[in-house]
Structures are given as C-alpha cells and as structure tokens.
Amino acid sequence: MFCTLNTHKVDMDKLLGGQIGLEDFIFAHVKGQRKEVEVFKSEDALGLTITDNGAGYAFIKRIKEGSVIDHIQLISVGDMIEAINGQSLLGCRHYEVARLLKELPRGRTFTLKLTEPRKAFDMISQRSGGGRPASGSQLGTGRGTLRLRSRGPATVEDLPSAFEEKAIEKVDDLLESYMGIRDTELAATMVELGKDKRNPDELAEALDERLGDFAFPDEFVFDVWGAIGDAKVGRY
C-alpha cells in the first residue's frame, strides 16, 4: 500500500515520498481488512486530509479532531480510499479524491470503501538508526538525499536549505488548507518554481505550465507567493 521512513508504525507524516535520506530505513505496509462505511455529510468539510503514494492509491493522512469523520470509529488514519459511492478511485491522485469528497452534497449519505493497513508491524520494535556508514564523503555525512522521479533516473542531491525547508512546510500547509491534501513533493516543486519569480503573475504562469492539471485558484497562488517570500526573509 505505502512505505514509511524509519518507523514501522502507520505514521502518515513519515510516508515515503520522492526523496530518501541516504541513511533512512524503509518499512512496507501491506493491505489488511477491507471495510465499507456509510457517512452522513452534515457539514461541508469532512475533516479529512488526503495523500497518495504516487502509484494510484490515495490514503487518509489526517483526521481533524471533532470533525464529521472523527466521530466514525471505523475510519482511521492510514486507510486507503478505494471507492466513493461505488466509483473506483484506484489510479486517482490525492487532489482528485479530495475534490470528489468536497463536491459531495451536504445533507446526504455517501459510502466509502476503505482498506486498512495490516497491523503486522505492531510487535516489531523500531530499528535504530545507527547503521554502518557507507564509504564516500557524501554518503558518510548523511546530508545527501536520494530523489526519485517518475521520469528519469534517481539522483543524489543535497538536502534543502533552511529557507527551502520552511517554504515547503508553509506551502504544504496551504495545500492542506485549500485542497485537503498534503504533498511535500508537490510543495517542493512549487517552491522551486517560485523562489526566483519576481511577482505572483510569474509564479502563476510557471505553475500553469508545469502543474496546470491542478487549476490552482488565484488566491491560493497569491498565498503561495507570500509564503515563499516570507520564508526568504526569515518571517517564519
């Protein structure tokens, strides 16, 4: 279903994305029990944050306390969303799933088909990070990161700067606020596209060219521009 870095637990903040530290450990989580849950949409916001593994599986990354979903005990963080009202979501990206959930009419009941990750790792203690260092100066420092791409080869790169890390964090927060998703790789791409742009219009043009499928609203682009600018001058 998905992999986590440096923990066997279902910790969606530790999901394997497009970058792997050279000293990271990877834990694979496989499919467990399937379940079908009826949900009454009493509010516009369900309180879900969605992420995906980049391979066609979307997951519940976070459930807001006190939200509609928070009151349903059968739904948990880490559950894979297979279908909504019988419509298969396999192959969909997280933002597509979030959009479908948002478009469901308020005051109606809908059905979620979910698969939870198997709890096979619960009895396994977390492996310590004191592995044997690899040879080579970059490998030995542990400051390198292996970046995976859907197109092209994987490459070893330097870790993001302090400015980039903070900007990525702020943009990721905006993605959750506006779209109900968290995606550090998407946020990193947006920061990379925006860090040298002189105004929001240039950023909007770059986002449309590279990430046009998202159809980001103007107010979101403006807030992303502001978040990158704040991080540049140290306004954290």
From TrEMBL:
It comes from the Eukaryota. Residues 124-147 are annotated as: Disordered. Gene3D superfamilies: 2.30.42.10. SMART domains: PDZ (SM00228). Transmembrane segments: none annotated. Residues 36-116 form the PDZ domain. PROSITE patterns: PDZ. Residues 128-143 have a biased composition (Gly residues). Pfam families: GIPC1_GH1, GIPC1_GH2, PDZ. Signal peptide: none annotated. Belongs to the GIPC family. This is PDZ domain-containing protein GIPC1 isoform 2.
